[in-house]
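hey so i finally got around to running the thing on that chain from the lab meeting. sorry it took forever, my laptop kept dying and i had to restart like 3 times. anyway pasting the input first so we r on the same page abt which one it is
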Amino acid sequence: MSAGSTAAPSPLPPVGVIGLGAMGRGMAASLRRAGYPVHVADVRPEAVQSFVAEGGVACDGPADLARRCEVVVSVVVNAAQTEDVLFGAGGAAAAMRPGSLFVMCSTVDPNWSAALEGRMAERGLLYLDAPISGGAAKAASGQMTMMTAGRPEAYAKAGGALAAMAAKVYRLGDRAGNGSKVKIINQLLAGVHIAAAAEAMALGLREGVDAAALYEVITNSAGNSWMFENRMAHVLAGDYTPLSAVDIFVKDLGLVLDTARATKFPLPLSATAHQMFMQASSAGHGREDDAAVIKIFPGITLPPGK
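ok and heres what got predicted. didnt touch it at all, straight out
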């Protein structure tokens, strides 16, 4: 409910969401639909005000939000931003009451996430390692997936909030880390599939195959993948608006390779895909949709934007 509303108070406890990007905004909306009073904070005032207009409550940064909510959901880009949300100037950690829960939804190094659980416990705070997948549309409809790990008391504190945000909430262990491990394995597949889809479409274009016809055939054949169907539609439309950017996969496949390197485990496909996204980023496409990895291929004419 919005500030100043005369509606009856919700029987559910308030939940705070920090980060109203493509995923966070949808998650906040899903919580609100489920009946939770949703407090929000974002570095972009316009993102906060847009959600307030739909019934959210604005907070003046992470600390203000943490004082109001005993469940804080962080949906920022990476570990560095999470550190800032928690321990930077005006950070949430110092303002959270003992026994409060921090739900970390970013894609991060699993070892960093496991260590963060210990750092939070030293402050008397609960922690859930809870990266997410499914894209903005599924986040907005409450149909995304959460890969979670944490102590039983953290799940108890979350109550029904996780189910309000996600259709599938996987519990992968009673200590932080396994959620992030499963997420980076998912990102391995996602990044390799996008790179492979781009390579296939690029070959078709180079060979003079009609792009729309190729898309129609592949999406109804054994070679299809969810990523081909989703991302090559962006290529056909000439629309590289960043729902998930090239630089996200520079980061995420980098995490995949770092994890494997620690145990000297070979990942040849991941390494190649990472280099493809690196090449696209260095060519100036880092902030475009990750389908823009197709732009690294020479001698092809891409469908124009509409």
